[in-house]
Amino acid sequence: MQQFLPVGVLGAFTSLLTRPEWYIAVLAGIGLMVLLAVLNHVPGRAPLFLWLRRESRWFLTTTFLQSAARHQSTSVRLPRPVRSWGVIAARAYDVAEALREGGQFPLQLYVLALLDDLRNNHRRGSWDLRGFKRTRPPVLFLRRTALENGGIELIRAVSDVRSRRSELDPLLIVAGVAADDAPLLDRGADGSPQAPPPPSRYQPSRLQQRLRNWYDEWAGNLRAGQSPSRTNALPWVLRIPLPREELVQVRETDRRCVRARHRLPLVRVVWSAYSLTLAVVLACTAGGVHSYELHRTYCSADLLTANRDTERHSAPGDGTECIGLATGDVRFGAYLRDTGDEEADEQGGRLHDLEDRIHDENARVLRGHSGTYVTVVYAGPLSSSRLNPSPVKGVEELTGVYLAQRVVNENHTVKMRVLLANGGADMGHQSETAEAIAAYAERDPTFVGVVGFGRDLQSSPGVTDRLHKAEVPVVSGTNSASYLPKEFSNWFSLAAPDEHQAEALGHVARQLRTPGRATCALVLARDLKGSQDRYTSEQAAYGEEMLKRERFRMLPTQEYRVVNGDPELRLHAERTCQGENVPSVIYFAGRVEDVGPLMTQLSTQPGCANKEISILTGDDLSKARFSGTGGSDGVAPRITPYHAALTGLEDAAPATAFYEDAARHLPWIEQDRLPYATPDFASGQTALSHDAARALYWAASREDVPQSLAATWVNLRSVKLDRTATGTIDFTTTPLYGERHGHSILVKRVRTVVQGSERASFGPGQIAPGDGLGLLVAGLSAQGTDHVAQHAQLDAPYRYQVFQAGQVAQYLQPFSLRFRVALHTVEDHHAVVPDLQQQRPPGPSHPAQLRYERFQLGQHLHSASMDAGRRRGQGPGVPRHSDAPTSSAQTSRFRLGRPGPGFGLLVFSLLPQVVEVFQSGCFPRLSPQQRCDLHNP
Asked: What would the pLDDT profile of 233-271 be if each residue is shown by its tens digit?
């Protein structure tokens, strides 16, 4: 039973631990602990863990008891409790048998235990340093020691145990023994009188000196006194004879105790219960303060440690933002708060979702592909300011990076792991982010480079230089700084430089200038005092240089301040509109968030409200979401912004799988709209960051082998990728410390058209009835429409609009007309004639939509189309195509450069009288024959 009970309990406990329910294991552990506690305190039995106690080990191992012990093992072991109990029981039985025999053994055993306890209490090697604290030995005073009261036997037992063990102990016994009882201190003495010892030759007169002499003599004879030849002597007893005249009874009134003066040991002061308590309190206080500092400084912290890759900083205005590189479980979205702005809160939720998706994808890479992956860091603005609530501007770029990660991990053997780095609102803390990335690059061999840093600030040179020293390449999708590739060899960018953007806008400015007289122009730029922005200063410098080159009459440059996130534009608008010379062209060197307030101020000033004003600006306006594209930004009626765009998504749409991949991996993308016209893709930032991540990955996984950081830097100059979301990426011609050419630059116009007494706004691929349409070109391929748009001229007598084939029906709805539309196929030059029947929707007016026209300069396509129609004998009406193949001479005027596969055009033309078309859908100036052509295909 003694053997099987512990085994049974252990087996039952083990079986409970194997259960899948965690609470069963917890309850089993608690039950076992309760059972052991009860068994340990059952009356009448030894403690349950007796074999583990120090007293048991002493009882088994002391050499004093070996004479009474049998020849059995005296060792105890933790994993063998049953055997240990058996050893203890055998030793206890032997000692009990010896105690029954009587004699001096029981008293000597007790004395041995007492001396061992005293020795342990003065041991210097203990954890509490008790030997250093107790500098004076314990003293036992026996006033009248005699044979009757057992004092003589006690002294004998102490002397015998010390002689047998030869161990020192701190006990000092001072006993008063009568002269007649002194012979009893010898072994074998029976109380008969003994002859006094011979007097010493030298007897000092002073008692203190005599004590010293007696002690020295006893200490010298101590070793010899313990020899067996001197059996009658008690070697550990020092006898001090006192004269009878000195033994006087002291009265109680004269008895007094004087406390000995001694200095408190330093160990007792330093290492005591009080000092330990104080030390614990101080340690807890210091730990609490340190933990508070860690939680206040770092985004992820425990009690005494913290993830030092991310730090907490105060956000502009109010709140906190997390800055640095997100390693571990850090989430930048956790620091976003509800702002009350619907668009900003939506982007914040999108950031939460993207962080979770990227974290899950990284976990799959680390779990299943250890050693066959590369780590890419995205660095962007992943927080917003509460001062001026705005969407998280890095969400669109992060979407592109996540999409690149999913596509790469699905189709390539070398996987991509993505870490996020937050530079703060408007990248205000990108220097701290660069330091965190550089530190991380030293400890992670899989790290290959950075995607992002898309905002040009005063700190951008320092950031790029820090990463250059750390040998970290940077591929940016949207940073248009002209100087960075000239100064740093680790900088690669897909964005056209600011200087090239200004040159492209110069073609527009040239046609906005009135021939024959001076046209006033103004540069309105942000005041950079106390600001980190450098993009606006670059735009202002290149814009002013461009306007001077186009021979505009330049007005003094004005700089507006941004206070608490709001631009102060009222004074500048009054000064501009109420001046003697009101500018027709304003080059706006500011940020996208400042364009709306500028239009509001200009549209309400008397001098500008009724004047056509054109605003030229850089690519930052691409981030705006106008009301026709799912956003809330508006455009003043008589103000037309022209802005550069970094990519033409419709050019590359037919040849890329970017939008199919987005439809599979991004569930929030609107599927019922043209892919590149959705609000998530319209700005181009998602596509640019996606392509930047793909370019960096290509350099880091050359020949399907993970590359090092230095090798990735070298391989970037051999990157050439086709059929990407933005077209072709080619770094092979990128010079070292030189300006790169070949960027894609588009110029876009945004305007609001006033129709009658109502204001109509039109979005991409949409046009209002009665808006003076001369030619409508609807392309079945985005690549083809881009080439057609290159032939549209700004100062032509008609305005042109590029359509997609799916939007033709949307245009035809207001007219209740039946059109015959000729489909001209470039590949086989055959005509296919479908019928298109659309009914006018109910309601008195057409809904307002925003027109977002994309154009480039080229030859006059309208006159070419009219000439082609007249040569075929059809007049300037609707050009028709027969079923016979079209000759190359007839199609040369519609040459589209390099059309993609399956490319086609829907071309039809309306007369200039269409300007007079009202919403009723009637054509009052059309001849009967023309009406017949329209109504009878």
From this structure: 688 888 888 877 777 777 777 777 777 777 777 888 888
Closest CA to 383 of 279, 481, 311, 490: 311
Are the C-beta atoms of 647 and 689 separated by less than 8 Å? Answer: no
Helix 395-411 and helix 685-700: axis angle, to 10°? 40
Phi, psi of 863 (to 5 degrees): -65, -35
Distance CA 808, CA 825 (A): 17
Among candidate residues 292, 295, 315, 316, the one with its CA nearest the CA of residue 306: 295
Give DSSP secondary structure letters for 107-134. HHHHHHHHHHHHHHHT-TTSTT-HHHH-
Cβ neighbours of residue 522 under 8 Å, at least 6 residues apart? 554, 555, 557, 558, 576, 583, 585, 586, 587
For residue 476, CA distances in Å to 310, 492, 825, 829 come to: 22, 6, 39, 43
Each residue's pLDDT tens digit, 834-877 = 332 333 333 333 322 222 233 222 223 333 334 444 444 434 33
The conformation of residue 251, written as its DSSP 8-state character, comes to P
Q: 746 near 854, Cβ under 8 Å?
A: yes
> CA triplet 659, 663, 665: central angle to 5 degrees?
110
> For 323-329+336-496+649-711, which CATH class?
alpha beta
Helical H segments across 122-250, by residue range: 130-133, 151-165, 207-220, 222-225
**Stretch (H or E) spanning 808:** helix 808-812
**Residue 859 neighbours by CB distance under 10 Å:** 11
Taking only the tens place, the pLDDT of each residue in 495-517 is 888 888 888 899 888 888 888 78
CA 215 to chain centre: 78
**Structure tokens, 543:** 């814009």
DSSP for 683-748 reads TSHHHHHHHHHHHHHHHHTGGGS---HHHHHHHGGG-EEEEETTEEEE-TTPPTTS-------EEE
* Residue 477, token pair as written in the block: 């999708």
Q: pLDDT-based confidence at 231, cuts 50/70/90?
A: low
* 317 contacts 385 by C-beta, under 8 angstroms: yes
Token pair belonging to 310: 């991310």
Task: Supply φ then ψ for residue 121, to 5 degrees.
Answer: -75, -15
pLDDT classification of 386: cutoffs 50, 70, 90: low
Domain 497-645, architecture per CATH: 3-Layer(aba) Sandwich (3.40)
The pLDDT tens digits of the residues spanning 119-137 come to 888 888 888 888 888 888 8
Helix, strand and coil in the chain, % to nearest 5: 45, 15, 40
pLDDT for 931 equals: 38
Give dist(CA 477, CA 712) in Å, integer: 18
* Residue 539, both tokens: 């735009």
Mean pLDDT score of the chain, rounded to an integer? 73
Q: How far apart are CA 77 and CA 58, in angstroms?
A: 14
Here the tokens at position 334 are 């956790």
Other C-beta atoms closer than 10 Å to the C-beta of 782 total 22
* Cα dihedral sign, 342-343-344-349: positive
Question: Could you tell me the CA-to-CA distances from 499 to 182, 264, 468, 716 in Å, in that order?
Answer: 118, 82, 24, 24
Dist. CA 853–CA 628, nearest whole Å: 12
Cβ neighbours, 10 Å, residue 114: 15
Look at strands 851-855 and 746-751 and give their pairing: antiparallel
Extract the tokens encoding 748.
Answer: 């876009």
And the tokens for 164? Answer: 């047998």
Q: DSSP string of 831-865?
A: EE--EEE-PPPSSSSPPP--EEEEE---S-HHHHH
| Of 30, 265, 13, nearest in space to 136 by CA | 265
